[in-house]
Amino acid sequence: MPVGTGVLGQPAAAGRVFDLSGRVAIVTGAAHGIGLGVSEVFAEAGATVVCADIDGDAAAAASRAITDAGGSAKPATVDVSRREQVRALVRSVVAEHGRLDVMCNNAGIIVEAPVLELSEEQFDRVLAVNLKGLLFGCQEAGAVMRGQQAGSIINMASAAADTAPPGLVAYSVSKAGAVQITRTLAKELGPEGVRVNAVAPGLVETTITRRHYTNQDGTINEDNRATFLARGRDVAPLRRIGTPADIGYAALYLASDASRFVTGQVLRPNGGTSMP
Ligand SMILES: NC(=O)c1ccc[n+]([C@@H]2O[C@H](COP(=O)([O-])OP(=O)(O)OC[C@H]3O[C@@H](n4cnc5c(N)ncnc54)[C@H](O)[C@@H]3O)[C@@H](O)[C@H]2O)c1
């Protein structure tokens, strides 16, 4: 018998700790981009995934794509900036499934404006979704998980929380705030068996990045797109930008028992772009 972890000699154990079979997960902002990637990876790992989004039709399409591929998913319509809608979402999931194991607060928006030009309305809008929406998700899921004495909350932050890019002050404030909510809640709920962590992705091409290469008439400028993506690749030591699945696998680690001793941390799937 080897001295140490007890995992040696049990080759299947390391595989099993990533298994989400029988677990119930909510992913917000699940209709597109990173949220869709997280939902697909969770479903691939065996979870029942509630794909929640403000765009109800797209959430239904995301859920259908997962079930068509053999996974277990359900759609839900939610505006995360409305506390009563987040509460209703969490309550309906618990009423149907009897539990909530994973809450991924992923929904987010971006507004680009230099500090001196940022309007109060723009600032409020970004914080309402990215920060208050995330807080509501933490509060509603956290209360359920405290009752269960188990659960994992995953908050979608951003490299912007560390790097403070010019023109993105509302966004980076919201993401730095998301990290502080994560750390505070990890301390408050750790003794209750609930883990709370953040994922801070680097660049992933989604609707959020389109503003960099969209013409005034709404069409994509392919030259600008190629330049933008090449710049993103060049600054990454791994020489590529991320995919939604790359972020999904980071979230899977935090959702699963593989991270059972991890809380209050920020995991940075970013190709090495920033190393704070
Ligand atoms: N794409 C990147 O490079 C990148 C990098 C770092 C962090 N992020 C973060 O990842 C998350 C997902 O972004 P993405 O890039 O996939 O963008 P995306 O625009 O493709 O997806 C965002 C999703 O959130 C939904 N949404 C927006 N407002 C909502 C609301 N009020 N309630 C519920 N759903 C709402 C949208 O309908 C959409 O489906 C965001 O939190 C974003 O800040 C993205």
Automatic annotation (TrEMBL):
The keyword Phosphoprotein does not apply. GO terms for biological process: fatty acid biosynthetic process. Keywords: Oxidoreductase. GO terms for molecular function: oxidoreductase activity, acting on the CH-OH group of donors, NAD or NADP as acceptor; quinone binding. The keyword Coiled coil does not apply. It holds the Pfam family adh_short_C2. InterPro entries: NAD(P)-bd_dom_sf, Sc_DH/Rdtase_CS, SDR_fam. Belongs to the short-chain dehydrogenases/reductases (SDR) family. PANTHER family: 3-OXOACYL-[ACYL-CARRIER-PROTEIN] REDUCTASE (PTHR42760:SF133), SHORT-CHAIN DEHYDROGENASES/REDUCTASES FAMILY MEMBER (PTHR42760). NCBIfam families: PRK07231.1 (NF005559). This is 3-oxoacyl-ACP reductase. It comes from Parafrankia colletiae.
